[in-house]
Amino acid sequence: MSTTLRAVRGDRASAPRPVESIAGTSMIVMACVLVALGAIAFMIALLRGDAATAWEAYLVNLLFFLGVAQGAVVASASFYLTQAKWGGSTPYRLGEAFAPFLWVGFFLFFGLYFGRAAIFPWVKHPIAQKAAWLNIPFLFARDGIGLGLIALVSSAFVRISRSEESRAWTIATREIEMPPHSIRVVAPLLAVLYAVVYTLIAFDLIMSLAPVWRSTLFGWYFFAGCFWSGLTAMALIAVLLRRRLGANNLFTNPTVMHDFGKMVFAFSIFWVYLLFAQYIVIWYGDLPVETFFIVQRVHHMPWSPLSVACVVLIWAIPFCALMSVWAKQTGWVLGPVAALGLIGMWLERYVLVVPSLSPDAIPFGPAQFLISIGFLGLFLICAVPGLNRVAQAATSGEPAGDLGE
Amino acid sequence: MAAAPKIPLDPSFSDIDRSVLGILRAPGLLYWAWIGFCFTLVGIAAALWARQIYSGMGVTGLRQPVMWAIYITNFVFWVGIAHSGTLISAILFLFRTKWRTAVYRAAETMTIFAVATAGLFPLIHLGRVWFFYWLLPYPNERYLQPDFRSPLVWDAFAVSTYLMVSALFWTMGLIPDIANAREAASGWRKKIFTVLAMGWQGTDRQWRHFSMVYLLMAGLATPLVVSVHSVVSWDFAMAINPGWHSTIFAPYFVAGAIFSGVAMVMTLLIPMRKLLGIEDLLTPWHFDNLAKVVLLTSLVVSYAYITESFMSWYAGDPIEQTMFHMRYFGPWGWMYWVMVLCNCVIPLLLFSPRIRVNMMALWIITIFVNIGMWLERFVIIAGSLTANFEPSQWAGYRPSITEIMITVGSFAWFVGLFSLFVKFLPIVSMTELKEGIVWLRKALRKGYANAA
Amino acid sequence: MSTISIISAFADDADCARAIDALREEQIRDFNTFSPIPSHKIEHAIGRSRSPTRWVSLTGGITGVLTGLAVTIGTTYEWRLNAGGKPLVSWPPFIIICFELMILLGGIFGFAAFMLFSGVPATVTAPGYNPRFGEDRFGLIVRCDEAEAGRIESILKESNAEEVVREEAPLR
Question: Which of 135-174 (B) contact C at CB < 8 A?
Fold first, then answer.
């Protein structure tokens, strides 16, 4: 993807020159170093016989970064579905910025095949009753097809969304107009696929690690969390770019930042609602097949502080810190809250996955840290072209906000 | 009922007032006949309830193990209907949705009457209704208090809070409109409006506090509405009954509530806009968007059906699997499949933009949705009880005439109250329509008005 | 010198807001408006701080949570009854009661604050009120010295006031 696309210029004389690029070679080099470190650490861990914990870290990071990337693209699609024009085209570009990682995640998913014995307990101890669903060929076929399909549809969506026609729609406020026809086909399709595929991923890559356990809400809970992490990553980038893009970029508009803050606030409450909805049903029913999963994470060491930390980082801090309008508009409040929230979401994936596999101790050492850093590097490399588009859109001086009807 | 004056393509504030206040002219004989019909049915239901109180629950079809059936189904159904009003008035307000202004008053009025209807059913379901206040904590010499760990007590708190907060929110929105109606009215109406408007004059001071509190109320009503149907769902999900005990119940019931509620809004508004001659205020643009909400929630509900079925198969619990087998293929299996048809298949038609602006098609689809959602609650509530852990206890259920007529009476009560409201208070918010007048103009310009 | 009132009517809230801006620039602050809709432009021009009702509502919400905690925990200890093997103080269900009471009292307090601060119910009609201000006109009432009246009237007219009327009695 080229970073030197024709910049879109505003027609106002005072509009600043669009910024063409904010992330260049130095960032890519740095990210490549991170990836290399991660890959080396992963190899060493495998060679040293720590395969199990290395694969756990691999799975946790795959789930987290895939969730952020897909959640953000779906956020962009849902902006079309709700005909959101509060920030011109920039929020759309922001949501699509991480899309290339979807393909990387798709290929990395098949990497799990090599770690199947370490990851899926039912490979070593097959469960006859559930063999029809929990078997390796079917799992990789259904999830692989699902992830491939959604990556394909997401790419198509991103391409259409970046067209001039779609951009013109995002800033046109004079009349009631539907988004371009192709968007109206692809965006709902993407939303439906997202719910289906990410439910499958949650059931197969998290729930099946404790094969006896089940929770009907778990899929919804997982993809709602992914959606929130996507939105939060978008808000974080908005805060980070606000200073770097010079005067009069879109992110200096308090109304727009207020909207980002509101979304982080509202969907964090939604996440904790879905968590509570599962917790109270399981707590009240008190059925052993359901409670053991919760008891292990909430009441047993070393997991209980981590579980509490997840709720604090994802819900309590955003809820308390972002209650006022001022806080939502203030970069040094929204930024750290979003960053902590993303850490919380990473931790939540960790707490969902790892206790099922390594119940007694937290297997997090330098190797696992470096693997995580490596995934971050991959994610950043994928995001570079998209972030440059965000910078262009945010500095192009388009009218923002739907107040100017 | 004569048509209210039509409004031009580029309406002004006065055009809106003329059109909305035009509805409030004295109603005709046909209207009173309709009201009389509704309240006759209510009277029959009330008489049957009186008989039930006098002679006991034996007059219903409730027998072990199906002790929750039509009454509780109606309770859940009506609470669900209420949800669309709060969705449109509060949640969409926070989302700055433009199309809500024309329909929100009608939807919110439905909320009030639907909660008022729903609240009756737990009482009707009580064998000794005169002890209903035991649900609430109050000081007494026996030191007895409700068990706050019981979902039924949560329900009492949630539903009464919902009724109270919705009523306050609704009243607030009505104040400026009634003040406006006061100026145009005469005679006894003017006197009543003068009292109800509470001296509203629209000064900067009044608006300043009004706007803030309205926003606050919307912010409070949004989590409230989600909590109410969650709590209703937990009446079932807390038990370990197969078919009831499922973590997805809370958000799935909320989505189902909005689904049925918005469908009911459309079922009522489509004939109403014609009868009252306000087609130019409630344009197909508004219905297009309402239909999208119905479509979205239909997909969510379908997702929940599929997940539940999958999980009963995946979990491999034989009792649960038997229950689900009974649900699909048992004696009441036809209800399940009618429900799937009404809730999951027919709403898919709304993917077509042409159908979304075709009033007749929308009306028929939403009626199917109402039927489907009523059946859904019945299948979950009564159906899950027929086939329980002990096969020796399995039994069917046959509703008695008392239960059927009280159900019919509840529909008459709801529709009757709504019909009364329509002719006596402004059913479309003039204030909010004026605030978003540019959007009404856009909608009319787009020529939607002529599409139907 | 006696105080008089000048009543003006605007067709558009932007004009009304412009007039208010001009008046404030001239250090004239004794005025009030009537409008059929809550206009952000007018509110912005008057430039008051945000309504304090939100603090009242917040107080109500906190009161609700505390009431919920007191009622649930208090009554449980008043009569220690084991129900279903659940702990006496079971926080998941109690959260629900606290939540509902938070919303209930937050709403009631908010509504009460709205009535209190905005003077509703009002038994006296504010001076200068005209039914058209509830329909489609924005009213601006300025109270000033007779000497200043001419200057103010010209400001109002410059801002596209449709009508400017002088009331000799000081309307309060």
Answer: 137, 143-151, 153-154, 157-158, 161, 164-165, 168-169, 171-172
